Amino acid sequence: ASSPRHQGLYQHGEPPLSNLGGPLDLTRQTGQSFSLQDIRGSVALVFFGFTQCSNTCPVAMAQAQQLLAGFRSRKPPAVLFVTLDPLSDTPAALAQYLSAFDPRIIGLTGTPRQIEQAAKRYGVASQSASGTLEHSSRWYLLDDNMRVARVYKINTPVSAMAQDIVRAQTARAAATWSEGAP
Prior knowledge:
There is one protein chain. The chain has one domain (15-180): Glutaredoxin (3-Layer(aba) Sandwich). Helices cover 31% and strands 23% of the residues. It has four helices and nine strands, in the order E-E-E-H-E-H-E-H-E-E-E-E-H. The strands form two sheets. The protein has a seven-stranded mixed beta sheet with strand order 2-1-5-4-3-8-9, sandwiched between helices. A two-stranded antiparallel ribbon has the order 6-7. Strand 6 and strand 7 (132-135) form a beta hairpin.
């Protein structure tokens, strides 16, 4: 049974979780290369958007800021903001945009083809309409093996996402402990 916060995500023929996700071999806001292998073993949240978005992207980044602030005594998840507008969202533009939220948020950009492929792998819908970029607004929770474990709508309470992150981290810790147990 799915909880109310997860219902309705796949009403329009969207792929199941097992069909979502994959590599994100892109460029960080620092100009350095990035791969999901860089954060393997951590839990991650991924959001696709763009810096000139005035609707859901600032809401999502404020959610990320609130979520990261709540992880004082625990390892925070990696938070990834993947641009859908790579021509405008250079590493410098991402760095400037994300500096208003939390320095731990990793901004990612790439070539238009790289971004298009990444968005397709995660089932992100976007289209340019009347000079603005419209896009789906979802968070993707990646487990410690970088598989999509959950998808959240933008209106999902941060507390609900945090609970799932803690559960994923606890599952990882339990698995690691049992692997090393005599």
